[in-house]
DNA sequence: GTACGGAGGGAGAGCGCTCTCCAATCCCGA
DNA sequence: TCGGGATTGGAGAGCGCTCTCCCTCCGTAC
C-alpha cells in the first residue's frame, strides 16, 4: 500500500497480475483490435486491483499526442482585470470544455499578459505539452497569433486577427449586431443618436462602428457623432462627458461594449438624464456589466458558447489533419432587450 | 526547413551537428556538471541552428517531473460566474505566476465545477501531468480536497478546509479582519450595528462572524443581529431587506464579503438610506464589487498575492520533499477605507 | 488429410530523454 | 618518469508506453 504511492504501477504490473502480456493490456485499455471478452474482463479487474493509471508522458512520447489543448488568453495591460471581471471568458471556457469533455480531451488554461509570459507560453506549446491551442487575444497589436502560426501546434483564433494571418478563426457578424442596435433605437423613436466606439485598431470595433453608421444612414441619419473609447468603463465615462458637452440633445446611444455603456449610463444619470426615458442606451456583448447596470442594459449578445464549441471543433480538425485549409466561421448575434432601451 | 516542421529535431540531431555525444548536449542544456566552455558554445550554436526544443514528454518520462503545476479552481453551482466575475481569482493567478515564472515552472489552470469535471481533474493529476496542485475551493462540501489528498500529487489549499485534512494551506486571519471592521464602525460612531454573514458551513464565514461579534462585544455591544447569506449579491439584497424589516434603526453594517455588501448597499439606498451618512457599510475581500459600488466600499483586504506566492512556495517544497510535514501560514488582513464607511 | 485464412495473443523495437557508470585526458607532485 | 586524483566526454541502460511484426490456434474448404 505504502509503495503504491511512491512508484505507481505500470502496464507491466497489470500484465503480470492478469497473466497476459503488456501488449494485451494496452489493447484492452485503448480498445484496439479484438481481445477475447473474457480476457478483457480479467485485465480490467487487474487494472482496478493494482490501481493502474496510464502514464501520460510515456504514452505521448510514443504517440506524439498529448490529449490536451490549451486555451491561451493573451492581451496587454488591464489583462487580469479583463479576464477575471468579464464573464465573457467564463462563457468561452464553458463552451469549449462542454465540447471537449465528452471527448476526453483536457483543457489547459494559459494566461499570457506580459512579454515574458508570452515567451513561456510559446515554449510550452512548442515543447509539445498540448496538441493545439485556442487563442483569445484582447489586443490588436498582440504578436502572439503571428508567433504561433509560425512555429507551434495548430491554433484557432477567437475573432478575426488584426493582421491577415493563415489561421482559422471564429467570429461574430459585428456589423449585423450594430445594425440590430440601430434598428432598435430607431424603432424606439430616437432622433439624435450617438455612439461610443472601441479602439479603432481592433477590427471588431471598426465593424461595429461602421455597421452602426451604415444602418443609421439607411434610416436617413447621415451624421452620427462618435467618440473612441478603449472598452473600459472609465473610457465610457469620459466619452460620455465629451458627447454630452458637444451634443447636448442626444437621446440614443450605442456603445461598443457593455462596460463603456455602463460608464456612459452612470455619467448620463449624474447629469440628470433618465434612462431610457431621456436617453436610450444599447451595449454590446451581454456581459455581467449589462445586468449590473441600473437599469439593466439592452445589448447585443454573441452566441459565445456556440462559437467556442466551434473553435474546439475546428482545432480538433486541424490537429487531425495538419494540412487542412484554414477556415472562418461567422455567427449571427442577437439583441437582448432589457430596460435601458 | 519543411521537414523541421513535421519531425522536430532531437538531442541526437543537435549532438551530430555539434560533433559531440547526446549526453554532452543534455548536460549543456540542463547546466549540469562541468562542460568545457568552448564546447558549451558549440552546442548552443547547434541548438539554435537546428531549432531544437526539448521534448517534455521524453524528459518527464525519465525524470518523473513535469515542470508544471496546476491551479485547480473547484466549486459547485455558480461557478463560472464566480471565477470570471471575481477579480479575486485574478489576484491569485497573478500571485502564483509571479512566483513561478522566474523559476520556469508552468502554471496550468483547471476548472472543476461539475462532478465529471472533477473526475477529469483527478485523472489529470494522477496521470502525472503536473507535479502538484494548488487548490482553491469555493464550496464547503467540495470533496475534491479529500480526494486529492488520498491519491495524487502534493496539494496546497487556499483557506482552511472545512473538514480537517492532512494538507498544507494558506489562509487569512478572518477574525482579525472582522475586528478591523468592527473597530472602524465603532470609531465612526455607529450605535446599532448588524452583520450579514456568509454561509456558516464555511470556516471563513464563521470566523468572520464570530470575530466581528467578539470585537463588538469588547466595545460593549452584546447583541449583533445577523442574517446568513451565501456570498452572492442577491443574497445580500435579501438579507438587507430582512435586516431593515427586523431592525429598522441600524446605522452600521458589516458584510461577509463585498458582493453581499454591494447588494445590501443597493437595497439600503432604495429604502432611502444615505451611505455612509445614515448607514455605514464595510465589506470583505476588496473585490471589484468594492470599487464598482457607489459609494465605493470600505472593505477588508487580504494580501492575496502574497498568500498565493506563499502557496506556490509551500507546494514546491512539498514536491521537493514529499515527506515534508504539512503546515499552515496565516496572513494578516488590512482595512481599506473608502467612502462607504 | 492438407491448405488456407482469420482471429487472438506475445515478443520486442523503439519514442527522446536523463543519468549512471566508465574511459580518456590532463595536471600535479614525488 | 610515473602514479594518482580531478576533470571532462561517451556509451548505454532504461523510463512506460504503443504498435508492428509474427506466431499459434482453430475453423473451414478442398
UniProtKB/TrEMBL annotation, chains A, B:
This is LacI family transcriptional regulator. Residues 10-38 form the HTH cro/C1-type domain. InterPro entries: Cro/C1-type_HTH (IPR001387), HTH_LacI (IPR000843), LacI/GalR-like_sensor (IPR046335), Lambda_DNA-bd_dom_sf (IPR010982), Peripla_BP_I (IPR028082). Pfam families: LacI, Peripla_BP_3. GO terms for molecular function: DNA-binding transcription factor activity; transcription cis-regulatory region binding. The keyword Transcription applies. Residues 9-63 form the HTH lacI-type domain. Keywords: DNA-binding, Transcription, Transcription regulation. It comes from Acrocarpospora macrocephala.
